[in-house]
Amino acid sequence: MQQIDDPMPTKEVGPRPYVPSRFFMSRVVNPITLWLGGPTLTVRGRRTGRPIRTPVPTLEVGGARYLVSGGGETHWVRNLRAAGEGELRKGRTREPFRAVEVVGDEHDRVVAAYREQMGWRAREFFAALPDPADHPVFRVERQEA
User: Fold this and answer.
1) Is residue 94 part of a domain?
2) Most buried of 63, 103, 104, 106 (most Cβ within 10 A)?
3) Which of 138, 27, 28 is nearest to 74 (CA)?
4) Sequence-distant (≥ 6) Cβ neighbours of residue 9 within 8 angstroms
5) Nearest to residue 71, comparing CAs of 53, 55, 82?
């Protein structure tokens, strides 16, 4: 039996790029945002199964809402990808949702809108991860509680 060489070499899958939050953001700003009831994502932990809360604002583009990870493959991204659903909170309002990871043109449009809206606040993320593909995007689809 003759073996045919694969003309397309398999891309090695390794750790995806990630920009961890700085100390001030993770230890001061995020806890204050959670305490004040700012925009928060609650998602089941992929290892523990316990709910994990993280300040993550939504971005509206073309009538749809999205969650964009400026920091790349963060823990909330990996947890949301594994769970497929979560809950958004702002103040006392809670909204369960289904997360749909987007790719292609939709992804690129949302990342461009995120970069424009965030301005200087996203500069550090895009300096470290200049490729838009390194910034996961999830479309928020409402679901009943």
Assistant:
1) yes
2) 106
3) 138
4) none
5) 55
